[in-house]
Design brief:
With about 220 residues, this protein is of the alpha/beta class. It has a single domain, classed as 3-Layer(aba) Sandwich (Rossmann fold), CATH 3.40.50. The strands form two sheets. A six-stranded parallel sheet has the order 3-2-1-4-5-6. A two-stranded parallel ribbon has the order 7-8. Helix 2 packs across helix 3. The longest helix has 14 residues.
Length: about 220
């Protein structure tokens, strides 16, 4: 995973970068799988493992659990023994259960903040008012990790921890992600695959905001 977003402003077949940016592709997965994992899985890892220290028995709420970051975060949280609550529209709940979500929440039908409680860790991948609303579901001492911008300035955050994260290259974490993938415990859902020449179409697909898993470019 290249240092992001600085300098990683395009798509390419070859790249020169510092060695800590790379990890060998696990032999058990193909290149489409391998291409789908690094950015989103590292983001999820740095949020749930490095920042929030998710452990066995923790109750974890993952927003946009069917999205690129979210669906890998679900699997990483499950691999650490957490109880996972994930939000998505109802049509994606079977998918959520398939990747290990214990409790899917239809964010269109209910206000998640009314039906979810006593959560140890929230991963906010949506932003806007999701951060402030997520504070209501946290246990005292709980952690809100955001990978997007949310304004908590006027909120009472006493008794909880709130962190905002920008993913960074990390060979050690990537190696652990690769090991999970090799063991079949972490698998990217492939929403769609486009040839590099059609990268613009891939971006259009991403911008719909309805992607399940990851979009991959092939060369
Ligand atoms: N800070 C960092 O280092 C970092 C790194 C990577 C990504 N990001 C950011 O993280 C965000 C998420 O990225 P992503 O690639 O995971 O997104 P994505 O794959 O585009 O997310 C799509 C998913 O979001 C769901 N969704 C949309 N609105 C929702 C809502 N209100 N509640 C619950 N689910 C909702 C959709 O499900 P439905 O179809 O059911 O609505 C869809 O499955 C982006 O803003 C991205 O820029 C930050």
């Amino acid at each position: 995973m290249l240092r992001y977003p600085f300098g990683a402003g395009s798509h390419a077949e070859y790249v020169a970068a510092p060695s800590r940016t790379f990890v060998a592709k696990p032999s058990a997965i193909d290149h489409v799988q391998a291409g789908a994992l690094p950015l989103a899985a590292l983001t999820a890892w740095q949020a749930l493992v490095d920042t929030a220290d998710v452990r066995e028995g923790h109750r974890v709420l993952i927003h946009a659990a069917a999205g690129g970051v979210g669906h890998l975060a679900v699997q990483i949280a499950k691999a650490r023994g957490a109880y996972v609550i994930g939000t998505a529209s109802e049509g994606k709940h079977a998918f959520l259960r398939g990747i290990g979500v214990d409790e899917p929440v239809d964010y269109r039908g209910v206000d998640f903040a009314d039906v979810v409680k006593d959560v140890d860790v929230v991963l906010d991948t949506i932003g806007g008012d999701y951060g402030p609303r997520s504070l209501r579901v946290l246990r005292p001492g709980g952690t809100l990790v955001s990978v997007v911008l949310s304004n908590l300035d006027d909120m009472d955050t006493s008794g909880v921890r709130s962190e905002t994260l920008l993913v960074e290259p990390d060979h050690h974490a990537l190696a652990q992600i690769a090991a999970l993938a090799e063991a079949g415990r972490l698998r990217a859902e492939i929403d769609s695959v486009f040839p590099l020449e059609e990268a613009a179409k891939a971006h259009e697909r991403g911008e719909t905001g309805r992607v399940t898993g990851k979009i991959v470019l092939t060369v």
